[in-house]
Amino acid sequence: MNWISNYVRPRINSLFSRREVPENLWTKCGECGTMLFHRELTDNLNVCSNCDHHMNITPRTRFDALFDGGIYTEVEVPQPISDPLHFRDQKKYPDRMKAAQKTTGEREAMLVAEGEIGRTPIVAAAQDFTFMGGSMGMYVGNAIIAAAERAVAAKRPLVLFSAAGGARMQEGILSLMQMPRTTVAVEMLKDAGLPYIVVLTHPTTGGVTASYAMLGDIHIAEPGALICFAGPRVIEQTIREKLPEGFQRAEYLLDHGMLDRVTHRREMRDELIGIIRMLLDLPPPVAGELPAPEDAAKADGA
């Protein structure tokens, strides 16, 4: 009797009560520790509904929310040499690249696209921090140049979302050479009289901060974003002093004149539309939902 009650019956119950539970239904906020349901988090653009902490967001998710109707066209980026230095640390560089590509589903750390926001045509580029820390290598340099060239050719402003841990060490000096290359790309936009707007997200550090991320006409940051060249721990260890509270965070930099605005992610699209139209000397945007581009084209034809 004990064998039936202690083994057979629980075994039968477990077979009938077993349910397939999908993984990753919940995400823990790294700031306040709240467990967030994945659908609600996605609808809130990866912003914690409890403490407003801005988590990482992929370029495609950002572009879906940014462009009218989530419609955009990717801009082709020239592919650089895959492993120029034959670099190896704990893994070979090509193996690290394959792992990052498998994890993110992206070819590299930056996505370039063109489309309309508020019926205003733009070119946009966004870094993916989940791809090797959004590190700046030759591909990222090529992507920014491709974005600038497309913006100049189409006479459109360029909006860039930065998120990087700095230059990619696996490409050595070649990654550092992207700093002057991207600076030249920004100068192309300025020579053409086109706006260049940078949205600094968490984190933007190292050679990215020292080049294209701080060369915009307008600098906007997401709340709480870490923006710096060397991180606060490195500075504290160097000067052996305690840094002020919130040092190198977006709000601190805004108070000290390094940024123009700190804007919530949910309000970023409307903010960009207003700024871009003002810089292009266009009428203010119309409040409310705008029709999708194809619907407007049909109406004009009729």
Give a structural overview.
This protein has 302 residues and is of the alpha/beta class. It has 2 domains: 28-56, no CATH class; 58-283 and 292-301, 2-enoyl-CoA Hydratase, Chain A, domain 1 (Alpha-Beta Complex). 39% of the residues lie in helices and 16% in strands. The protein is built from 12 helices and 9 strands. It has helices at 2-17, 38-43, 59-66, 93-104, 138-154, 172-176, 178-191, 206-209, 232-239, 250-255, 268-279, 293-301, and strands at 26-28, 35-37, 72-74, 110-117, 120-127, 158-164, 196-204, 218-221, 261-262. The strands form 2 sheets. A 7-stranded mixed sheet has the order 3-4-5-6-7-8-9, with helices on both faces. β7, α8 (206-209) and β8 (218-221) form a beta-alpha-beta unit. α5 (138-154) packs parallel to α7 (178-191). The longest helix has 17 residues, at 138-154. The chain is globular, with a radius of gyration of 23 Å. It starts with a helix and ends with a helix.
The CATH architecture designation of the largest domain is: Alpha-Beta Complex
Class per helix and strand makeup: alpha/beta
Order of the strands making up the biggest sheet: 3-4-5-6-7-8-9
Q: How far apart lie the N and C ends? A: 82 Å
Mean pLDDT: 90
The tally of domains stands at 2
Low-confidence stretches: none
How many β-strands, per DSSP?
9
Helix content: 25-40%
- What would you give as the CATH superfamily of the largest domain? 2-enoyl-CoA Hydratase, Chain A, domain 1
**Number of helical runs?**
12
Rg calc: 23 Å
Topology as H/E string?
HEEHHEHEEHEHHEHEHHEHH
- CATH top-level class of the largest domain: Alpha Beta
What kind of sheet is the major sheet? 7 strands, mixed
The amount of beta strand, in percent, is 15-25%
CATH topology of the largest domain: 2-enoyl-CoA Hydratase, Chain A, domain 1
Please state the overall shape, judged from the principal axes of the Cα atoms. Answer: globular
